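Dissemination and training. As part of the outreach component of the grant, students in the summer workshop were shown how a complex can be specified as a set of sequence lines and then modelled as a single object. The example used during the hands-on session is reproduced here so that future cohorts can follow it. Participants entered these lines:
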Amino acid sequence: MLKIENLSATVGEGEAAKTIINGLSLSVPAGEVHAIMGPNGAGKSTLSYVLTGREGYEVTGGSATLDGQDILALDPEDRASAGLFLSFQYPIEIPGVPVMTFVRTAMNSQRKARGEPEISAPDYLKKSRDVARLLNLDADMLKRPVNVGFSGGEKKRLEIYQMMMLEPRFMVLDETDSGLDIDALRTVAEGVNALRAPERGMLVITHYQRLLDYIKPDKVHVLAKGRIIKTGGPELALRLEKEGYDGVLAEAV
Amino acid sequence: MSAALKDMIRNPTVAELELVARYAALKADPRRERLFEAFALTGLPHRRNEEWRWSDFKAAVGALDASATPPADDPLASEGVATLKFTPQGYVAPAFLPPGLRLLPKDEVQAMGGAEDAPLGALAAALSGAKNAPATLMAEVTGETPVRLHMVFSGPGAINAARIMFLVRPGAELQVSESHLGGAAFSAALVECTLQPDARLSRVVYQRGGKGEAQAITALIHQEAGAETKQTVLAFGARVARIETRLVHQETGSHATLNAAYLAGDGYHVDFTSHVRHGARACVTRQVTKGAVVNGGRGVFQGKFHVPRNAGQQTDASMQHNALLLEEGAEVFAKPELEILADDVQCAHGNTSGQLDAAQLFYLRQRGIPLVQARALLTEAFIAQALEEAGIHEEALRAQASAWLAI
Ligand SMILES: Nc1ncnc2c1ncn2[C@@H]1O[C@H](COP(=O)(O)OP(=O)(O)O)[C@@H](O)[C@H]1O
Ligand SMILES: [Mg+2]
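and obtained this result:
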């Protein structure tokens, strides 16, 4: 489903451009959940921005395709309409735009791009209520401006709310666990697991093994210095938790 | 035309000569003469006049032929609200007047305080009273229930000069909405309002002129003890448009909220100028101006608070102007000025101009919102705060802003 081959990318402009992703290859088949773990500064968030097309991140080599479609050639909004979703490590505040307006606009934009009819107001409200209930989100929160004045945990839950509303085909979750207490973690994981499906794929970026107790990955990749240096099953995450990254990093050299 | 009249303005332009001729054709009146002289001191204001350096009417107003563009649509009009129309031919009073409102057409010109400080206001007053129109339209507001009035200023014609003076009696409330829709090559409107103790004014102004038109909207507001004004303006500009508010806190405990938003497209110029004098103790002013400008558009903000040494103690005033330059080539000029001579005051001001936040734009686009729509959504949110106090008109103003942004 998602296929990344020998991807290289720089961050920054002109002279200051730094290569952060350096020959990265990775493949997530439909129906699978893969985890990416790695030390701070390894390039995990950079990978998520390169995939979603953030400005300032330039691809210098390699390819990334979603079901065979070259996503790197698309504008960010077209990647989103193609079904790519990023749960941000640091969700952005949008003063003056209520969550409701934001998500409905996003949903209808995607539908329009795909040639589908808009969602009706009652259908939207019903869906929103169901999702909010599952995630333990206060209805009042959805009337407030996006992320403004939200706690760290609320922001992460709102990311998952958006994901469940938009029902993307491929999800990248960047450190969704950071800032969550154990109850919130469980709630969020429940939401994520609800989206697991044979036609969907997921890339879960995390620093800690903890999240993977709740979202069971099919594979675990270790990202360091801009490439995948090791791939294994869920037991690899446990080993990293116990031994830290140093051992695995040393092995890979 | 006598030599004396011709010499009133130095090196007059074609348009200025026409203005002199119009003045000369009106009924002679010493007050009218004083007002026209106040205008003639500057003539059509231009960039060498300090207060007008970014809004050059002399250059913008060519020959005063009828405008080529029809007036804009009126988003504030509503059934059942008395509507007063000002056209180049005079004024049309509403068929019925709300209780508490009395219109008093005056054939004599009324004096205008500070005419020299507002040359285009003085011009509007000097030229009002053409043909069947009164020289000055006065309106008295009384009673316990708020009085609602809608005023429309629109062409077609060459010059639309209008003047109305409101007197709001103690404790009474006026809710006035104004649509300045253009259609005349040059329009100059003067709205004056005296708020007697504990009187209230809510004023909502919608301005939208043509690309070849010049518009000057001048408001003079006088507040007595405990009076309150809430003003919201949404302006799209014209070839040159100036929206000027001069407000005096005359007695203690008076309160003013002056909000404005401008959206300047290619070839449009919007100028917000305000002057607030804290002439009495413990008066409050809250001012928020938000603007967004595209390539070829121009926004001007000149805000001044004047707080005299003794009279202005315990002033509480804040001024904020934030502009978005939506494209390269957009221009915004801002001059916030706090002239504070009293020592026991709270005065704050903020002034920014910049671009839309790249991180916010990316966030919206990552959710599938196309760039153009993402920009519009963020810009609308940006100016929304300035429209928040427009009450029943907030929605109509937001709809206009949002339609403009959607293009
Ligand atoms: N905008 C940027 N400009 C310059 N360097 C950046 C920028 N963003 C990230 N980096 C650098 O790229 C490296 C990888 O960062 P990131 O992808 O955020 O790491 P991770 O998410 O794995 O902790 C770090 O060394 C970081 O300093
Ligand atoms: Mg990161």
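The radius of gyration of chain A is 18 Å. Students were then asked to discuss how this feature might be tested experimentally.
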